[in-house]
Amino acid sequence: MNSITASFDAAAPANDDLVQDGLQIRQTRADPSAQPLPTRRLLAFSTLWMPLAAVEVPLSTYVPPLYAGAFGLSLGTVGLIFLFARLWDAVIDPGIGILSDRTRSRFGRRRPWIFAGAWIFAFGAVGVFLPPAWFGPLEFSAALFTLYLGYSMMATPYSAWSGELSAAYHERTRVASYGQGLMSVALLLALVVPSLLAQRFAHEPRYQLASMGIMVFVLLAVALPFSLRALPEPASTAPPRGERTGFWRTTSLVLGEKLLIRVLASNFGIRLAQGTRTALFVFFVAHYMGSPAWAPALFLLQYVFGIIACPIWLAIGRRIGKGRAAVAGELTQVAINFALLLVTPGAWPLLLLLTVSQGLAQGSGNLMLRAIVADVADSHRLKTGHERTGLFYSVFSLSDKAALAVAVGIALPLIGWLGFDPREVNPPEVLEHLKYVFALGPVIGHIISASIIHGFPLDEKRHAEIRDSLTARESGASVSAPTT
Questions:
Q1: Are 302 and 358 in contact (CB under 8 A)?
Q2: Residues 158/114, Cβ–Cβ less than 8 Å
Q3: Which of 72, 451, 470, 481 is deepest in the core (most CB within 10 A)?
Q4: Helix-strand-coil percent breakdown of the chain, rounded to 5?
Q5: Which of 53, 362, 45, 8 minimizes the C-alpha distance to 171?
Q6: Domains plus CATH for the chain?
Q7: Cβ atoms 322, 374 nearer than 8 A
Q8: The pTM is what?
Q9: pLDDT confidence of 264, banded at 50, 70, 90?
Q10: What's the count of helices (H) and strands (E) in the chain, helices before strands?
Q11: What is the mean pLDDT of residues 215-226?
């Protein structure tokens, strides 16, 4: 872990005179970029991404078949439960974002939501991962809905808080880089641990389920106090004006923020590409390459290099700007996926090379766009006087979930329509169809993303103008807002 943080810090400027008396952080309004956050505290703050990321792999990959086996639920019933739970998760995100923006307490705006959400998350996780023998569809649904409620109550305010930690253009990329790196570490654990458990408890699905839950509980118990105490929560500089924001008003606010819509659409393209690749990865390795046992190892290899890539893309973003770095990352992914067309059965060296390359490029666009959301929130606050960082990050999360759902909904029926059947021995022409969808499906998503975010006007210079205007207005001066 020390080598990882050293790599991040090599891409960041020195933090001279940053920390005094523990949590006292000097911030210069006129030049916020001169004050990077202390490395150890930023690392501690970012640890909460680990339990949030670690629960995703079990819920999407391992929990459904285990419930179908251990509790006798049909796959159709389990699928419907997860579908409605995901819809519930998506619906509540914007509401939580709005409410956390409006919250005022002596503990801050975001902390109360994260703390309360952690308990709800843990309570739901107990039901999902440590269920009693009498659990049926209704009980499982209630536990899963509770877990997702707690997840959203933590993740949405936490994302907003991450965007508010610094007003500096490049420092926000550094904050996002630490989060991305620790998410990759947690995903790595979530891939390794279940694989080991499947061998250790091959005929004990309840033990497998419980062990995965314990991993999530341990990460949450360690990360929550670290994260909540690591860094001070910035005070709101835009108190609420008593505006009541309903569904249609919220929708019009989001649709009226053109910069945000570009970021959301670009992120949707990235997640559509990633979701397509993930949905087809095991099928491609198992059936086209003919080696099912290699799929977990290639997943692990990709995530290992994803961890290594975070400081690299941080340095690239610092040099050329976040918008251009996002475009560069997406075009790199386009080239990698086109190269997959050259892979033939048995061409493992080429596939290994492309898997490593994919790992080095996979988080580039997500990283930059997540950091840009906070810049867009600054622009919005200058124009409207309202602080809506939580709302903006909630709809950013919504674009994630919607794109992943659409990717699965398109990719799997498409390869089925082209003749692929995972239960049968497929002829060579059908396997070629599988390869083309696996390679070219993500290409389309990455091209869409790059074309949308290309030429994004909110660069480092424009953001500095916005921050100067906000500082002047909040100190009582009258400075005209730059046009974005």
A1: yes
A2: yes
A3: 470
A4: 75, 0, 25
A5: 8
A6: 39-231 (1.20.1250.20), 247-475 (1.20.1250.20)
A7: no
A8: 0.75
A9: very high
A10: 19, 2
A11: 93
SS3 445: helix
Which burial class, exposed, middle or buried, applies to 199 when counting CB atoms under 10 A from its CB (0-12, 13-18, 19+)?
exposed
> Among residues 472, 284, 277, which one has the least CA distance to residue 382?
472
Residue-wise pLDDT for 438-457, tens only, equals 999 999 999 999 999 999 99
* Tokens, residue 239: 């108190």
What does the buried/exposed string (b/e) look like for 41-54 if buried means 16 or more CB atoms within 10 Å of the residue's CB? Answer: bbbbbbbbbbbbbb
Q: Which one, of 446, 455, 381, lies nearest residue 407 by Cα? A: 446
Residue located via tokens 């994004």: 456
CA dist 181 and 42 (Å) reads: 12
| Token pair belonging to 31 | 């030049």
State how far the Cα of 425 lies from the Cα of 448, in Å rounded to an integer. 34
- Residue pair 353/402 in contact (Cβ under 8 Å)? The answer is no
Give the C-alpha separation, 324 to 319, whole Å: 10
Structure tokens at 284: 């491609």
More confident residue, 19 or 94: 94
Query: For residue 431, which phi and psi values (nearest 5 degrees)?
Result: -65, -30
Q: Would you call 53 helix, strand, or coil by DSSP? A: helix
Type and span of the H or E element at 20:
strand 19-20
